[in-house]
Design brief:
352 residues, alpha/beta, 15 helices, 47% helix
Length: 352
Amino acid sequence: MHICMIVPNQAVKGGIASVVNGYRGSDLEKRYRITYIESYQDGSKWDKLKKALKGYAAFRRLLRKDRPDLVHIHSSFGPSFYRKMPFILWSASRGIPVVNHIHGAEFAPFYGNASGAKKKLVRRVYGKCTRLVALSKEWAVRLSQIVPEERIDILENYCRIPKEPFDTGRDRKQVLFLGELGERKGCFDIPAIWEQVKKKCPDAALVMAGDGEMARLKEAFLKKGLTKDVSFPGWVRGEEKERLLRESGIFLFPSYHEGMPMAVLEAMGYGLGIVTTTVGGIPQLIDHKKSGFLETPGNVKAMAKDVSALIEDETLGRNMGELAKRAVEQKYSLEIHLRKLEETYRKACMIK
């Protein structure tokens, strides 16, 4: 079967690219003939527009010369919805099944609070999709406001299980954040969390790995006099990210909106003690006070207490990390993810 997959550029920062990049070279490519068409890249608005136009042209050529049996679109909310709309409409007009894999994290501004005209457009476009893929049960319920729930499949993100030993040189007092440095990820709560942690654990260190509103965030730490043990290595990937996951003891992720964050899955896979929030699909991943700590977004005091507890009690962090790693191995491996994805493909191709 020939599948056309609409994807971001491999170098794009964020969870969608991380998910798709794991497909490349995997068993999925052994079982299907996959054509990847890139429709997005990081950069200026002009760079993004050029990439989208090139993607549309490549897709139109593919439809003429090597028509796929199925189109698998990786999308989000906001501008991503509009960028992916032509791919959906062109495929549906030719009777090609469409799997719309939705990675978005902010449903209210996209649909819940949208105008009547926008809601109508979203229902029309999503209605052209054969199957919708949600990252968690919570997101499946939200998407059922737009399309019938029987057309929605739940497909959690996955983690590539690291090779042993996965915790070489681990510093149990080093706290790690991975992701976009911004409001949505709860980054501006971290200075207040860190202020309380340092009072109890003065030897602790914090690594804020990512990019975004870095200058503003640095200023927030500076105002509290907390710059000494806080580092900003920028966006990390590959060996550098693996090194940070191996050497850090605690993962702090105080996010306000999520689908199924790859960063949390990666931290679980490396056996870190995790402090995060009860949003999106995260409660599916973490068993509170067993494989990590789950707190309400914005509860700075509780998260500071959790981080401090993990620093002060190495056994607690080690035990939580082992349970988290076991959960990834049993439920969220790439192999399990691909089996579920192939079941979605089978469902899609039965409905023309």
